[in-house]
Amino acid sequence: MRLSSTAFADGATIPRRFTCDGEDLSPALQWSDAPAPTKSFVLLCDDPDAPAGTWRHWAAYDIPADVTSLAEDAGRSGGRVAFKQAINDFNRPGYGGPCPPRRHGIHHYHFRLLALSHSELALPGKDPSCQEVERQARQHMLAEATLVGVYQR
Fold first, then answer.
1. DSSP one-letter code for 50
2. Does domain 2-151 have CATH number 3.40.109.10?
3. Nearest one of 68, 67, 81, 66 to 31, comparing CA atoms
4. Which residues contact 34 (CB under 8 A, 6 or more apart)?
5. What is the pLDDT of residues 92-120, one digit of tens each?
6. How far apart are CA 20 and CA 37, in angstroms?
7. CA 112, CA 93: separation in Å to the nearest integer?
8. Do 152 and 104 touch, CB atoms closer than 8 A?
9. Where do the domains of the chain lie?
10. What is the model's pLDDT at position 98?
């Protein structure tokens, strides 16, 4: 399975407009080669370089299996694709772009796509956290693809 973006290449700098210093838009993402039995996808974004441990920026889940991309800014509006979004570590639903502490060096943002064997995640409560979504998704994971972007302030 492959995950890519028209906004940045794997290992490249994430453009400012997709960060807290810009418009805080989620980047356009595309994927291919999911396993045949895939019933849904989960898209995660996190920063393992955060000073207090991994900072979770986004969890979009229950993305239908026939979807192969999310448009720019899907993390705010959702667009035409119906999916759910968890509460991120900024304590709000949806996408929260890179926003590392100033002069903390380069941070690596891992966008991870999980292909799942279930069409919907059984999550407790109305507003799950990104961590709860990932924990539940890993129980049904068929494949994973990663795209890493970097950013520093």
1. S
2. no
3. 68
4. 1, 41, 65, 115, 142, 143
5. 999 999 999 999 999 999 999 999 999 99
6. 37
7. 18
8. yes
9. 2-151
10. 98
